[in-house]
Design brief:
This protein is α+β, with helices and mostly antiparallel strands and 818 residues long. It contains 26 helices and 13 strands. Strands 1, 2, 9, 10 and 11 form a five-stranded antiparallel beta sheet that branches. Helix 12 packs parallel to helix 25 and helix 25 packs antiparallel against helix 26. The two termini are 55 Å apart. Keywords: Coiled coil, Hydrogen ion transport, Ion transport, Membrane, Transmembrane, Transmembrane helix, Transport. It is a multi-pass membrane protein. This is V-type proton ATPase subunit a. GO terms for molecular function: ATPase binding; proton-transporting ATPase activity, rotational mechanism.
Length: 818
């Protein structure tokens, strides 16, 4: 035991020791002190005002001001994006400004931009109206000229043939009556011209026809230019129309329909001279407005350019200020002493740094009173904090996705860094596919500085975050690929010649005649001659299945051993004697014995049936083993192991609850007396630790909990060992899929003497390899390895009922406010 005590501590095995501290900060140095703490990022504040709403807190007005400034900055960002301006490569240096000056500056910029936008919208609306008027004048003048020529021809025809017949006037249509001289000219044929979206023209014409009961003449022509729609804020295709009608009632109906459809009506004079004169005026005004609009856009872009160079700095500053005031709102304000009282957690190793920055804050703010920083005792459990780097961070996130470690319990990441990519590779083993994964991982690692500063998509962000996980998975896949001797399912004589040859020199088909061994065993991995032999599948199945059981037993034993180190670290001898010891005995009496038999069978080359041995170990432990005997005195050994496994079950179940009940009764009924410890003694004995909170003992609950835990372990020992057979199943599936794609696609296509068929086969093989084997199979093996660690490994020792250390840090603030 002294050997383990003398070993140096591992950084990631236990979380950092935490301490609960209290800060008493004078008001004049509070803002600067919290800012310095945010820069350091090693102090988690406790909310002392959680019973108050956000509007009842001390610094609510400052938070509102920061929120308003954030809104203005988002408005500037939207305007810059609409203008298509890019931030400068090197932002211009600007002297530091305080919050009040920045607030005034932002308000001036916003009012200037709002005024320019309003003027620009008015000018744009006027420009669009004039543009539409120009197109209506151009198209409607053509309609009117054709209508007048048509009227002259009709007049001649009517004079010659129809005006002698008085009854025709009563029977004529509206349009013909309006074109006649005489009494009908008193009302006259009238028209309305305008422009409407092309998508509405058919419905518009149909409604006009129904509203006037067919007493109108509709003419249309497509506009030559696209026009900006003020509602949709995009250019749309429009159509110019002219409606001929008669009567004031029809005019009212048509105008209402035009208004309902969003059509813009423009007056067009019938006189051609006036039309030309108005067209010239419109064109001149359009030219002037175009020049004015361009000047306004240049002026607006110039104003935005002066903002864009400072926008990032202003955004960071406002975000930090808002975070500082949000944190100050978590502190308790003492009106009488004019100070702020804060409490929180920090790592013990960070105490000197925090004290140093608090002293610096006092000096920089010219405060006459220093900041008081002292350690307190806490009832609740401390948060969990692991110091990770860019390599271990992704593995820590994988473990934390299952649950955050309890304070200072053993962290699975120390072992997961190796076991996770290795178990993935056992299922994915192929050094060709591993090289493809390695290239992708190396690209992500080589470009990590560039990619880390960019905004990536969800898939790329996930792949980039786990780039080192992918790197190790690829390296272990190459290693396991050499073990399986598979390169895209093709074996190679990488490490020498095969140890097997055909049974006789005339054989040509290894599938039918079999192989014989004629030289030393292949030095590394599976002999390439197994590929294609009739015993290939039985051999590889036996190898991978037994290998999976060995890996499973080894990893689950590691989990049980880590439970011992947890119990030893927390000085819980009860858990060592009545939980760790019976678990080790039970598990290794059955499955440790099975692993031992597998190793002995491999070393001796025995033909013993391990299924028969394990089954009859339970059904008939006293029967003779016969040919299945692998050890001397194996039968009495099996009886002993079976008895130990049976004894271990009640050993796990009953002693611990009974001893806990006995200790409780002795403690609270005065049979034994212990010295009461003060908070100072507790702190001296274990600095930074949380004071244990004793709850009322309930024997029935403890017994039921221990019963559930024991039954879960006993049944889980069987199911978890069987669960590791997924290593065999997925490895076999990956190998067989690779073989199918290689033999049935690539080799089959290469048998044709046609370049197109060969290229098609190569394309199908590349597509299947990339999307099925390198993407789907990678994801499948990733998830199965995740399951083996979460369920089979970590449930042996990992409580995962802690909570993360979330310090106040400017580095962890979100990039953009919601």
């Amino acid at each position: 035991m002294e050997f383990f005590d003398n070993l140096p501590a591992m950084d990631l095995l236990r979380s950092e020791k935490m301490t609960f501290v209290q800060l008493i900060i004078p008001v004049e140095s509070a803002h600067r002190a919290i800012s310095y703490v945010g820069e350091l990022g090693l102090l988690q504040f406790k909310d002392l005002n959680d019973d108050k709403s956000p509007f009842q807190r001390t610094f609510v007005n400052q938070v509102k001001r920061c929120g308003e400034m954030s809104r203005k900055l988002r408005f500037f960002r939207d305007q810059i994006n609409k203008a298509g301006l890019l931030p400068p490569a090197r932002p211009t240096l600007q002297p530091d400004t305080d919050l009040e000056q920045l607030e005034i500056q932002l308000a001036e910029h916003e009012s200037e931009l709002v005024e320019m936008n309003a003027n620009g919208e008015k000018l744009r609306q006027t420009y669009n109206e004039l543009l539409e008027f120009k197109m209506v004048l151009q198209k409607a003048s053509g309609f009117l000229v054709s209508a007048q020529s048509h009227t002259i021809a009709e007049d001649r025809e009517l004079e010659e043939n129809l005006y002698l017949n008085n009854d025709y006037i009563e029977r004529g249509s509206l349009l013909e009556q309006e074109m006649q001289p005489g009494p009908s000219n008193q009302a006259g044929l009238r028209f309305i011209s305008g422009i409407i979206c092309k998508s509405k023209i058919l419905r518009f014409e149909r409604i006009l026809f129904r509203a006037t009961r067919g007493n109108m003449y509709f003419n249309q022509a497509p506009a030559e230019e696209y026009v900006m729609d003020p509602v949709l804020a995009e250019k749309v295709e429009k159509t110019v129309f002219v409606v001929f009608f008669s009567g004031e009632q029809a005019r009212t109906k048509i105008l209402k329909i035009c208004d309902a459809f969003g059509a813009n009506c423009y007056p067009v004079p019938e006189d051609i001279t006036k039309q030309r004169q108005i067209t010239q005026e419109v064109l001149s005004r359009l030219s002037e407005l175009g020049i004015t609009l361009d000047a306004g856009i240049r002026h607006r872009n110039k104003a935005l350019s002066s903002i864009v160079s400072h926008l990032k700095k202003w955004t960071v500053m406002v975000r930090k200020e808002k975070a500082v005031y949000d944190t100050l709102n978590m502190l308790n304000f003492d009106v009488t002493k004019k100070c702020l009282v804060g409490e929180g957690w920090c790592p013990i190793i960070a105490q000197p740094q925090i004290q140093e920055i608090l002293q610096r804050a006092t000096f920089d703010s010219n405060s006459q009173v220093g900041i008081i920083f002292h350690v307190m005792d806490a009832v609740e459990s401390p948060p969990t904090y692991f110091r990770t780097n860019k390599f271990t961070h992704a593995f820590q996130e994988i473990v934390d996705a299952y649950g955050v470690a309890r304070y200072q319990e053993a962290n699975p990441v120390v072992y997961t860094v190796i076991t996770y990519p290795f178990l993935f590779a056992v299922m994915f083993g192929d050094w060709g596919h591993g090289i493809c994964l390695l290239l992708g991982a190396l690209i992500l690692v080589a470009r990590e500085r560039r990619l880390g500063s960019q905004k990536l998509g969800s898939f790329m962000e996930l792949a980039f975050g786990g780039r080192y996980v992918l790197l190790l998975m690829a390296l272990f896949s190459i290693y396991c690929g050499f073990i399986y001797n598979e390169f895209f399912s093709v074996p190679f004589h990488t490490f020498g010649e095969t140890a097997y040859k055909c049974r006789d020199p005339t054989c040509s088909d290894a599938r039918s005649t079999g192989l014989i061994k004629y030289r030393d065993t292949y030095p590394f991995g599976v002999d390439p001659s197994w590929r294609g032999s009739r015993s290939e599948l039985p051999f590889l199945n036996s190898l991978k299945m037994k290998m999976s059981i060995l890996f499973g037993v080894a990893q689950m034993n590691l989990g049980i051993i880590l439970s011992y180190f947890n119990a030893r670290f927390f000085s819980s001898s009860l858990d060592i004697r009545h939980q760790f010891v019976p678990q080790m005995i039970f598990f290794n009496s059955l499955f440790g014995y099975l692993a031992l038999l597998i190793v002995i069978k491999w070393c001796t080359g025995s033909q013993a049936d391990l299924y028969h041995v394990m089954i009859y170990m339970f059904l008939s432990p006293t029967d003779d083993l016969g040919d299945n005997q692998l050890l001397w005195a194996q039968r009495p050994l099996q009886i002993l192991l079976l008895l130990l496994a049976i004894v271990a079950v009640p050993w796990m179940l009953f002693p611990k609850p009974l001893i806990l009940r006995k200790n409780y009764l002795e403690r609270f009924q005065g049979r034994t007396y212990g010295r009461l410890g003060t908070s100072e003694m507790d702190l001296d004995a274990e600095p930074g630790s949380a004071r244990q909170h004793h709850e009322e003992f309930n024997f029935s609950e403890v017994l039921v909990h221990q019963m559930i835990h024991s039954i879960e372990f006993v049944l889980g020992a069987v199911s978890n060992t069987a669960s590791y057979l997924r290593l065999w199943a997925l490895s076999l599936a990956h190998s067989e899929l690779s073989t199918v794609f290689y033999e049935k696609v690539l080799v089959l296509a290469w048998g044709f003497d046609n370049i197109l068929i060969r290229l098609a086969g190569l394309a199908v093989f590349a597509f299947a390899t990339a999307f099925i084997l390198l993407m789907m199979e990678t994801l499948s093996a990733f998830l199965h390895a995740l399951r083996l660690h979460w369920v089979e490994f970590m449930n042996k020792f990992y409580f995962a009922d802690g909570y993360k250390f979330k310090p106040f840090s400017f580095a962890s603030l979100p990039e953009e406010d919601d």
